[in-house]
Amino acid sequence: MRVAVTGASGFVGGAVLDLLLARGHDVLALSRRPVASRPGLEHRQWDLTSGALPDAPNVDVVVHAAAHVDEWDPWAVHQAVTVGGTQAVLSTWPAARVVLVSSCSVYPLRAPRPPREVLTEDVAPTRRHLSAYSRAKAVQERLVLDRPRTVVLRPHAVHGPGDPTLLPRLARARRRGRLFCPGDPDTLVHLTDVRLVAEAAVAACEIPCDATVLNVADADPLPLAAVAAGVATANGWTERPLFTGAPTAWAAALALEGAARLLRASTPPLLTAYAVSHLAVSRIFGTDLLRQQLGVEPRATDLSRWRPTPTPEGAGDSHA
Predict the structure, then answer these.
(1) pLDDT by residue (tens digit) across 188-244?
(2) What is the DSSP letter of 24?
(3) How far apart are CA 43 and CA 35, in angstroms?
(4) Which residue segment(s) compose the domain that 86 sits in?
């Protein structure tokens, strides 16, 4: 099978690329930055904001893993890269099947269900987005779901070696012997191993799937206290966790965001509402459809792997 992978030099796209090659598929890697040359791999440099890819070769499936991931950047940037880039992908391959790597951030922060009940794929995306990133991912989903045989994968808080987003943010929370954790110790955090995202994406390429939207998450959520301890152990951090509680975390995030916006800061503050939504609110994602439709079995979260590695070139091209 010939598969195109956008965002192929990024964190998620690179993992998908590796697994596709390991399974013996021919891969067209698409990214702004180069990827390592390997048998079965063709690389084309492509900035999605430039429009459709000229002289595009035929492919059977497109795994669309490219998106702009910095939630602090303005909507115009996300619209150009994530939304406009998706339109460019669809225009380039009007007949190919699409597997989109989206995000669980499109779900409502508090679904209309009892607390800690599982969020399943029948819950409608929110209309009140905490960031331009989640808003763009929701628009991206609507674009691709208009095409038959599309599969949308929704991971949450993707982790693993080389994570260019969440781990650096946790590292920034180390202050004066404390690791500041925005939430309560028993808040349930449902993470997604980057290897699981790759398995789901490759399975969606190989297996006919009746479902259009699939959650992708590790076997079980973990208490925030366990996440903090696991990440600290994996990275040799000696700081003791300090749990702020959810109300304090939300108040701090809103105040810091307000000040940063007022000062027109080009980088996000230490704490944002989007970051708090990942760690201070218990969110559990059902993965029954992932098992039933693709035969992909989530594993227990392994935080021992969540360490920095030399950052893949183009790591900002793709993440959920």
Answers:
(1) 999 999 999 999 999 999 998 877 999 999 999 999 999 999 999 999 999 999 999
(2) T
(3) 7
(4) 2-317
